[in-house]
């Protein structure tokens, strides 16, 4: 396709957008409304996903080992564990350090542990973190097979529950986004149909003088994309402003011991602007193509 | 050259619009197509433009059988056939110049060609001075001349006029006929569907009459009759 033709399409789409101001505002508003809902939804999903990833990364495997291993054996074991696939890191926790930590955790009640320094009932262990929590059971099996390992513990049931919940959240949110996109395409195609209808005479003449289907569609396609872009820019702006104040508000609220960590606005902006612009373009272009199809049969 | 061989067309409701029509029009001919409303004139024109397809028979335009044309080839057929209608079909928000230039723009003609050809064609139909006016500022005859200019600007070898004088008074109609005659003299084949008895009678051109979907008369230098 010639550059001149593409320029013509873009020029036409702008002038058509301007000429049918009321209709264009209606179409952009419906793209905006759809993208606002999708965007808010995505923001929530992004944050839940972020939370889930954080929780998942906190999943760790405790590997209790036999008492009294030499430092060489411990280092060798640590190295072996680290080399297992799916393992992010492994640190050795001596039983003395474990007791210290425990004492610290108990705080005022730490006197319960008085005297245990002499006869420490805890065991030496490795704390293993994972790249992917789904690898937990494989890693556990592999570690269990190593010598000097007494017991391997990880919150299997809790982990599986968490994985199920995050999976459901991801699939569910994707489904809802797809449904919203389909509804928006329907709304936009109906709005653009009005623009196309207003220009059906022009389309008829174009067809009679021998314009190709692609040439007739071009300006509407460009117009759809333009509307999608405008709608997405407005919705991204509003969501980001809202999020900025939202974060501020939530931070100010004292929620007791529950600490809610939200994604920083910059990462919301990057994720959101890419998806919303893309969805906006898809909605706009599909909507316009669907609406013009019928008018091409001349 | 236009040739229709045993062409039939029925519509969905069973109405037989054309039945076994065979016509041959040589290059450079001027042909009137007459017949009462509903006789099949419009159907014949729509078939030539491939707006609809024939049920049977073949239609050959410039040595190409258009019944076998693919959908994406239709635009290229139409670039070789200029059309004017009774209702002019001009774009009201474009000037005379823009209306004519539009026909070139949409077939992606170079801007240089557009600037060169549009004034020439406008002077040919006598509208050079009105090129910046809008259709609503023109008389009916002038509007039809704009649509003639638009039909001719891409240099088609065939011009189809569907009742071009239907909305015009007799004097203006004659103006349009002069334009059509001139276009014909320059080598374009003209096929004009019409109800204008006095025009057909005095032009002494070939007349093809259709009745109930059949050709009932084809005279070299005919009159309107019916």
3D shape of chain B: globular
β-sheet strand percentage of chain A: 5-15%
Distance between the termini of chain A: 23 Å
How far from one another are the termini of chain B?
Answer: 27 Å
Q: What structural class should be given to the helix and strand makeup of chain B?
A: alpha/beta
Total DSSP helices of chain A: 9
Number of strands of chain A: 4
Spell the H/E element sequence of chain B. EEEHEEHEHHHEHEHEE
Mean pLDDT of chain A: 81
- Number of continuous helical runs of chain B: 7
User: Helicity level of chain B, as a percent range?
Assistant: 25-40%
Unreliably modeled segments of chain A: none
Could you describe the largest sheet of chain A, including whether it forms a barrel? 4 strands, antiparallel
Mean pLDDT of chain B: 93
Low-confidence stretches of chain B: none
How does the overall form of chain A come out from the CA principal axes?
elongated
Give a verbal description of the structure.
The complex is a heterodimer of chains A (298) and B (226). Chain A has helices at 3-19, 21-57, 71-83, 95-106, 136-144, 156-198, 200-208, 213-252, 265-293, and strands at 60-65, 87-93, 125-130, 149-153. With 298 residues, chain A is of the alpha+beta class. A 4-stranded antiparallel β-sheet of chain A has the order 2-3-1-4. In chain A, α2 packs across α8 (213-252) and α2 (21-57) crosses α9 (265-293). Chain B has 226 residues and is an alpha/beta fold. Chain B contains 7 helices and 10 strands. Chain B has helices at 41-48, 74-78, 96-105, 111-124, 140-152, 170-185, 197-203, and strands at 2-10, 16-25, 30-34, 56-61, 64-65, 81-85, 158-162, 189-193, 206-211, 214-219. Chain B has a 6-stranded mixed β-sheet with strand order 6-7-8-3-9-10, with helices on both faces. Chain B has a 4-stranded antiparallel β-sheet with strand order 2-1-4-5, covered by helices on one side. In chain B, α6 links the parallel β7 (158-162) and β8 (189-193). The mean pLDDT of chain B is 93. Chains A and B meet through α1, α7 and α8 of A and α2 and α3 of B.
